[in-house]
Amino acid sequence: MLMRIIFLVSIAIVWVMLYVRFSPTRVHQWHKVPTFSGAGDYQSPGGFRAVRKLTAPTQDALRAAEQRALATPRTKLIAGSVDEGMLTFETRSLIMGFPDYTTIAAQDGVLIISGRLRFGKSDMGVNKARIVGWLETLAPLTEPL
Asked: Is the entire prediction scored with pTM above 0.85?
């Protein structure tokens, strides 16, 4: 009986791992202009949003943000472009492959970077850490808080 329970639990774990790793990305759900109410940092359950005033041309800031994002391990562009003024990236965790989605948009002289998780309720601070790291690279193009 114990072996049967262990077997069933193992199958369930493998199924969840495969679902997380291979479930399709609904781009339209993640590729949206993040809302903002002013410059600052905003923590939310399962996500983090940073809003900065741009001190450089929008295209330059978005190009730099795109390069920095793509230099992040396990990160790929899933929608948008610099010309569109909005880019959305998927970053997966190393072992389980949990996807996080980060949208970078520029409008009205403001750069908005919003990261959020897809599965679960807590990202254990990884979205904030990733975005803060990106912002360090982008600091010469934005105005600090």
From this structure: yes
